[in-house]
From TrEMBL:
Protein name, entry field: alcohol dehydrogenase
Residues forming coiled coils: none
Family annotation (Pfam families): ADH_N, ADH_zinc_N
Keyword NAD attached: yes
Cellular-component GO terms for this entry: cytoplasm
UniProt keyword annotations, A-Z: Metal-binding, NAD, Oxidoreductase, Zinc
Membrane-spanning segments: none
UniProt GO molecular function: alcohol dehydrogenase (NAD+) activity; zinc ion binding
Protein family membership: Belongs to the zinc-containing alcohol dehydrogenase family.
E.C. no: 1.1.1.1
Organism name: Drechmeria coniospora
Highest taxon, organism lineage: Eukaryota
InterPro entries: ADH-like_C, ADH-like_N, ADH_Zn_CS, ER, GroES-like_sf, NAD(P)-bd_dom_sf
């Protein structure tokens, strides 16, 4: 195992019981297995999924105790003896998909996120809210050397996820796309990917701060759900022909926006479900869905090719994730802001603080 000097202990934010809080404490540093690498995490984005994991909101159980986080950007400091294509000193990222079997029908068709043996960073295995994190070498994100590790961290989940969702929407350049939850961590990045892909973006969220940010990032129009008296009509009115957007990607954390999206997309429109509000359901009138040929689909996270493509958009300067950086020891405060819906953009934690 090639390596550099590695400490035996590190600082981490640990969930010791479902419902939290996270405990900032020292834990041991684990060394990588034969097919794994150890990454010295410098920065990690904070995703709403991390809050769901702490609160036990989803039907898939988490490990406990748990080190959350799955947007970790850092430097490879050790690798197992079977690893040949990840170098010591390389910039690399910990993603939501930490590992998969690489040999099932899904993995063989580039659908490795659907692998039944998938390892999930910050959920079923410890993630990036620590100074040294383990990942399967085959699944690490290869971060171009010229990319700033602090700024690129949110791309490792938020960026890859929305890029995948945009591909799943099948929206074409020049068409209208609604982004629901556009002022949040995923939505703010989705606006930029959509603009870079030639789409006209209708941003949907609440409040003047998020409006200003969405328009600055490239949205062509903004609908405020807090003040709109008829959201469906207002969204349709944002399109040049009044028929509604060709597609909508929904990254909201409440149930109602999913139902609304099926109403304002145009005939043959596609609704891509991406947000994961706890215990939520999606429903649409069968008559309307059939007659207007509405397509409702889910989009999970990107595969390895999607990861490389999403990072290339960023490397070329087309994506700038709006973020604020705080110390890892302040993670509980970030979760409180998240629960109160007071975050515009993304928070990034510095693991050295």
């Amino acid at each position: 195992m090639g390596s550099v000097s590695i400490p035996t202990e590190q600082w981490a934010a640990v969930v010791e019981k479902t419902g939290g809080p996270v405990v900032y404490k020292k834990i041991p540093v684990r060394l990588p297995g034969p097919d794994e690498v150890l990454i010295n995490i410098k920065y990690s984005g904070v995703c709403h999924t991390d809050l769901h994991a702490m609160m036990g909101d989803w039907p898939i159980p988490t490990k406990l105790p748990l080190v959350g986080g799955h947007e970790g950007a850092g430097v490879v400091v050790a690798r197992g003896e079977l690893v040949k294509d990840v170098e010591i000193g390389e910039h690399a990222g910990i993603k939501w998909l930490n590992g998969s079997c690489l040999n099932c029908s899904y993995c063989n068709q580039a659908d490795e996120p659907l692998c039944a043996k998938a390892l999930l960073s910050g959920y079923t295995v410890d993630g990036s809210f620590q100074q040294y994190a383990i990942a399967k070498a085959a699944h690490v994100a290869h971060i171009p050397r010229e990319c700033d590790l602090e700024a690129v961290a949110p791309i490792l989940c938020a960026g890859i996820t929305v890029y995948k969702g945009l591909k799943e929407s099948a929206a074409k350049p020049g068409q209208h796309l609604a982004i629901v939850g556009a002022g949040g961590g995923l939505g703010s990045i989705a606006i930029q990917y959509a603009k870079a892909m030639g789409l006209s973006v209708i941003a949907i969220d609440g409040g003047s701060e998020k409006r200003d940010m969405c328009l600055k990032l490239g949205a062509t129009s903004y609908v405020d759900f807090q003040t709109s008296k008829d959201l469906v009509a207002d969204v349709r009115a944002c399109t040049h022909d009044g028929l509604g957007p060709h597609a909508a990607i929904v990254v909201a954390v409440q149930e109602k926006p999913f139902q609304q999206a099926t109403q304002y997309v145009r005939a043959r429109g596609t609704v891509v479900c991406m947000g994961l509000p706890a215990h939520a359901k999606i429903s649409a009138p069968v008559f309307d869905t059939v007659l207007r040929m509405i397509n409702i689909k889910g989009s999970y996270v990107g595969n390895r090719a999607d990861t490389a493509e999403a990072l290339e958009f960023y490397r070329r300067g087309l994506i700038k994730a709006p973020f604020k950086t705080v110390g890892l020891s302040e993670l509980n405060e970030v979760y409180k802001l998240m629960m109160d819906g007071k975050i515009a953009g993304r928070y990034v934690v510095d693991t050295s603080k």
